Each structure stands twice: as structure tokens, then as C-alpha cells.
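[job 4471] stage=fold_predict status=RUNNING
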Amino acid sequence: MAAVVDATDGFVVVGSATTGEESLTAVAELAPDLVLMDVNLPGIDGIEATRRLGAGRGGPVVVLLSTYDEDQVDAAGCGATSYIPKAAFGPDRLADAWADALGTRTADQG
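[job 4471] inference complete, writing C-alpha cells
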């Protein structure tokens, strides 16, 4: 994930976590604008971590990533702004997800 963020203009990695619990702590300490959350984290999964972050209710913008298509259904109900399959995750998809979250994506971008 970090390589994609580094390759995307205007984005920088400010932290990382390897478990759902660590993600909650990192977000509380770092207050990022955007969280890229893997659905399949040890401990609490990325969907539950997203719920706890208050995504969509004043918390950070959360984009969920997973290798499993069925996770997209769960992503919609946890407050995540969008879901990107890992196989499709790249700088363009990241920039589009951010623009969608901010409501700044134009017709010629999508």
C-alpha cells in the first residue's frame, strides 16, 4: 500500500498498523485525513475498525482494500467511503477514491 501512496501525487504515508487495534491507536495519535484499511487484519478486522473510527460520522475518510469481492458488501455498511479490490489498487484508483470522498471528482475523471 505504501508504494501506491508514494506514487500518487499529493499523498504521503504518515503511519501504518498491522492489526485492527493498532489502526485505532495510530489514527487517534496521527489524525490522518485518509485511512487505507485492509479488511483482513489480525485482531479486529478492518470493517470493525472502520466502524469504531466513526468513518462517515466525522472520522477520517476510510478506503477499504481486500482481495475478496464479497467484502465490498460489508464495506458499504461500516462507514467506509469506498472499497477498492487490491488487484485494482493503484495511484489512479486512490486519487479517484479521494476525489469522490471530497466531492471534487469531475465527469472527465470518471
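[job 4471] summary: The mean pLDDT is 88.
[job 4471] exit 0
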